Amino acid sequence: MDRFVASAEAFNRRDLMLFTFFDPEVQFEPQQAALQGTYVGHEGIVEWLKDLAEHYDPESGHIHLVDVRDLGDSVFATGTLRFAGKASGIQTEVPLAIVARFREGRMTHFKDYGDKAEALEAAGLSE
Cα torsion for 110, 42, 31, 91, to the nearest 10°? Predict the structure, then answer.
């Protein structure tokens, strides 16, 4: 759980240390993976960041975690991701509902369901 929270904090700081939290072959599925497909590996995370930068001001990105649960080799987390539109400056906030799996301290799979009930079910939890 600590490594998951630390990865969100690294994202918020724009710290390249972010990549040390992910397995080199991580399966990374943010919400837009439904349209773009799964991002794979560190290169995939870079591609995701580039995709975000096309529409949003990358300096405005901020993850706020509300509920993080340690499930042993996985984590369930909810919160929000906030960005400002690149051209408009309008703030956008989207819900996060994440299940992430770990092996040897590195994230091997990350999926943001965007819907808490779906993420709870995927994690084998109930409210």
Answer: 120
